[in-house]
Amino acid sequence: MRSKKFTLFHLFVCAGLVFVALQGGPAKVSVAADGLAVTVEKDQGIKGEFPQQFELDEFQKLTKQKLTFSENPEIGKLNGLIGGNPPLKAVKDRLPEKPLVWAPYHEIGRYGGTFYGLSNSTESGTSDLLSMRHVHFARYCDDLKTVVPNVAKSLIFNKDYTMLTIKLRKGHKWSDGAALTAEDVLFWYYDVTLNKDIYPKTSDRWLFKGEPIAMEAPDAYTVVMKFPMPVPGMINRFAVNYQQPFLPKHFYSKFHIKYNPKANELAQEKGLRNWVELFNKYYRATDWHDAPSPLLDGFDKIVAPTLESHILVEETTRGRVLVANPYFHMVDTAGNQLPYISRIDERYVPDKEVRDLKITNGEVTYKQQSIFLSSYPLYKENEKKGNYKVDIAPAIGEDVFYSFNVNSKDLKLRAVFGDLRFRQAMSVALDRDEINELVYLGTGKPAQSTPAYPSSVSFVTKEHLSAFIQHDPELAEKLLDQMELVDKNGDGLRDFPDGSPLVIRLQYANLCGPVRTHELASGYWRKVGIRVDIKEVSTDEYRTMGNNNDADITTYLNNWTAAPAISENTQMFYPPFGYPMNPGTGFLWAEWMNTHGKQGIEPPEDVKTLYKLSERFLQVPIGSPESNAIGKEIVDIHVKNLWKIGIIGQVKSPVIHHNNLGNFPVFTAVGTDYFRAYPFRQPQWYIKQ
User: Fold this and answer.
1) pTM, to two decimals
2) What angle is formed at CA 411 by the lines to CA 407 and CA 417, rounded to 5 degrees?
3) CATH number for the 2-394+653-687 domain, one of 2.30.130.10, 3.20.20.70, 1.10.357.10, 3.40.190.10?
């Protein structure tokens, strides 16, 4: 049953996807009884239903031996650092009755050591490290094509994709030792996601045709989700998304008014207004929120329990420290509980030059997010000195776009940005070949922006990718002249038709692609008479400005466009052509649609059509003829309107790891669309001696 179900997913995902001195002395771990360990590199002829992993019964049957379980010698000490955790029982009593068995890439690892990570700030550039400890019902294998179980033991759809049955592992525990059950999933959905006090408006991500999922738990280890429409991409959501659809009910119910009538009093005792503020103190710090925890302000010494490989034990304005989860649900093929690495030390460094210095000095164990190909020569030159290795991997959804605010609050700018001729002019003014050489070292290819990643679907055509990407300043000037955007005061720059100066602000965060791209783009636009002032701001400032519809231009990486992402959520297809972490344009159009015309401004017919097409797109398996036909129509509309202007496609990105990091694989690709490091199995990485 499981094999049949996961094979269905293989149809959804494209077949043509492109592909410090370390602390502590790691302790030895157990090896297989016969001295031969099953690894990915040397599988000893042992192959299971899914690549690189086994269910316990399956593994023991294939190897004809029973696993005995071992633990990190430091685990008792590490557990003592976790606020509120009780003393530990034996490892066999902390694991599920039948733990998930992982084959390490190269060898059985060693316990211990500290992993040194690097982020820009508490909510900037952190998803790479979050993805390392992440878990979900399912994940993508590192081929980025095959969906495999993770927290769930199995996920099975009915024939028409309207009902999904999820099986959990008996005995799986939260990081404080409490049992994980189906009630934790129902609590997340009914008591939190649909709760109007916590979420006044339920996210469209969890509504289908505007209706919620009907969810039930036939027993403690089974969750049945029933949808009001076919959702064949739902398991892809679980495999790539950072939002975890389970919460420890035993922990959060203490702060929830439904379960604790005195929750408001408890909140007021802690200086908060009500139970919602108290609840959110813990909830907003969970993995997918990427927000400061109660530890940061001294509010509490306890954080919410997790199922992830590591749990937070210390947080300051300078960084975070996490330790191994003593109840993690995986073992290696010799029976050693994962993860191998004892500690993660994440430092916040907002300055790019300082981050580069730390990398080249060998102070960072692994880094991929927020480093760009333009710095590759620097990283390569310092490999030996820093005792690290830098590789280059295809980057999925990491191409940069510019999106002019067609719904700008400034009515004069709205009129200019809303004219298709302006967007066409700004596109052909760009010298993409020069950007490719100077920023991407000639490794990319000029390309127009599309709402689906070209190599992950078959409905994006060469014509789509080549539309208005030629460098043609004369055409740009002609189009701008037609709009009567001419220089009226003799300063060499174009003005509004009323004679007032036309000044556009491009404010960006350092996550928004290479800074050199913005500098070059501003120069090209100035050459055709358009003044675009650029300024770097913090990630929070950028996102706040974009989501409040205050940005003249939004610019970011064009993520959540790979096949698995769009098969479960079409948020890049229609306004605002993005999501809060990556805002696009058309906020007032979206408001009009969401309020049925009561607020916002009425969008053009092309935009209304996108909503209808997107709903149909979600209901058919991606890769099917019907899906391809709908997808092409969607991309046709996007390219025709140029709401997002693309620059360089097929980009590549550096991946850096310290030579003291064991079981590190070659990355098939990098990017948010598969949740960064999540497919590459961090719990079996280890620190060498």
Assistant:
1) 0.88
2) 55
3) 3.40.190.10
